[in-house]
Amino acid sequence: MSLAFSTMAALRFGTGFRPQQVPPASVEELLAQLPAGRRETLLFPHGGLGAARQRIVEAADKQDALKRANKTADEATKRVNRKRLMVEINTHLGEDEHARFMQAVLSPNGFNERLATFWLNHFSVSSIKAQFMRLLVPVYEAEAIRPNIGGRFADLVKAAVLHPAMLIYLDQVKSFGPNSPQGLKRKLGLNENLGRELLELHTLGAGSGYSQADVRNAAFVLTGMTVDRRSYRARYAVKIAEPGARDVLGRTYGGRGRGLPDILALIEDLAAAPATRDHVCRKIAGHFLADTPPPEVVRAMTSAWEDEDGDLTAVYAAMLRHPKSWDDEGQKAKPPFDYIVSGLRALSATQEDLQDGGLAKPRKMAQAVDRDAMEARATMPAAAGKSLDLAMPTLRVNPLTVQAAARLGQPLWRPPSPAGFEDNFSTWIAGGPLADRIAWARLAAARLGGDRDPRDFLQAALRDAARQDTIDIVSRAPSRQMGLSLVLASPEFNRR
Questions:
Q1: How far apart are CA 171 and CA 193, in angstroms?
Q2: In this structure, are strands 394-395 and 359-360 parallel, antiparallel, or unpaired?
Q3: Of 158, 404, 408, 433, which residue is 20 to 30 A from 416 by alpha carbon distance?
Q4: What is the SS3 assignment for 467?
Q5: Does 164 fall in a domain?
């Protein structure tokens, strides 16, 4: 059957129906969500980007102070101090994780939210790579990914690849030109990780014809990019940059002088390569339409890319305006994040429903902290022992959002590799994940279902995407809560 435009727009290209919001009624309304999304005040990082950046600086100062204090401290006190800082950083991450879910559930700009999630997965970084990544990753999405998803692809690559979160995640901070002043002095050498993923994942794609020599030379060109450990901002340090010229895919970068312009030129050239537009357009269409997207749609997207110098809004428009993009609903499975978000939207979850669970001291952490504190008190003067702040509270994790995403296999901001989370049907529609989804559906229905009639809820959540057999099953549900759970667990709700 052919679904209504608004149904396909909400389910295939958006974050699902939310009763308080009117779904897009045209391609133009879908595209208008991109500038609207840029104007929207993000709910994460909590307190805004300025506050998040200040937290990073303060944490760096505390880490320096801790190192100084630990020079004369006993081992038990060192452990307490390290744990205190880690708990503080983890608490900030937890606040941002809950706010990130809140952003997706409450925003009226579902297409923009879907694109932000797609591009964050394309340019994957992980919050557990290093301690300060817990503070950097929310900032990375807010200041590098989201502002650039409607502009030129080359600008998005520059913002993502040269952000301190990516430079730390892919070990660029450990990459030294072997013949650079600092490389020679410290006997440090090249790390190829960023060079490899820039070619293989971010631009050209695997099997597109580049060689290992291209990967290595790209890594040489990228030397010099590092992170200032006081401000945690990216900077170019010429003293760690490999001198001389390097060839990547037949083009030369550098020469007598080496600098940031060489890196920017490399990214521009990679972004403009035909292999890049083929790889990226196929991946975008594969995310929204089907694991094997219609070739006609991909061709229309690559043509728009070529005509508009990689302007991503033009690429999205080409996809949305192609008739094939609106055929054959249900070809994609919702990954856990999207499933949870669409379920909470259907249930009209409020900001209060999406908050974290408040502060608590987990038992394992409390036991470890108390044990170390007792050891510290045994060797420290009484006054010093009294000065210890042992509460170190952490956030309770909301079982409907952050905890659920981890349980369903897609922990927020923690992809399994630089390639990100899988984006295919078979990964997410299998026995284990489906059982966990059913458990989540029951919990969500119990907590947020209220006195909703399941038949009305089915109509509101799926509209004309609901199949007759699902309508019949929900109508015969033995209880209100079971009926709501059946809607959230239905095949139609798990697909798009």
A1: 7
A2: antiparallel
A3: 158
A4: coil
A5: no
Residue 484's domain spans which residues? Answer: 337-358+398-409+429-494
- 360 token code pair: 């608590």
Q: Are residues 354 and 472 in the same domain?
A: yes
Output phi, psi for 47, to 5 deg: 90, -10
Q: Number of folded domains in the chain?
A: 2
Residue-wise pLDDT for 157-172, tens only, equals 999 999 999 999 999 9
Q: Say what the pLDDT of residue 338 is.
A: 98
CA angle 50, 56, 57 (to 5 degrees): 90
Q: What is the 3-state secondary structure (H, E, C) of 150-187?
A: CCEHHHHHHHHHCCHHHHHHCCHHHCCCCCCHHHHHHC
Decide if 205 contacts 278 (C-beta within 8 A): yes
Residue-wise pLDDT for 327-357, tens only, equals 999 999 999 999 999 999 999 999 999 998 7
Q: Among candidates 117, 212, 81, 147, which has minimal Cα distance to 405?
A: 117
Boundary-marking domain end, from 231, 246, 270: 270
Residue 345 domain flag: yes
pTM for the complete prediction? Answer: 0.92
Which pairing describes strands 246-248 and 234-236: parallel, antiparallel, or unpaired?
Answer: unpaired
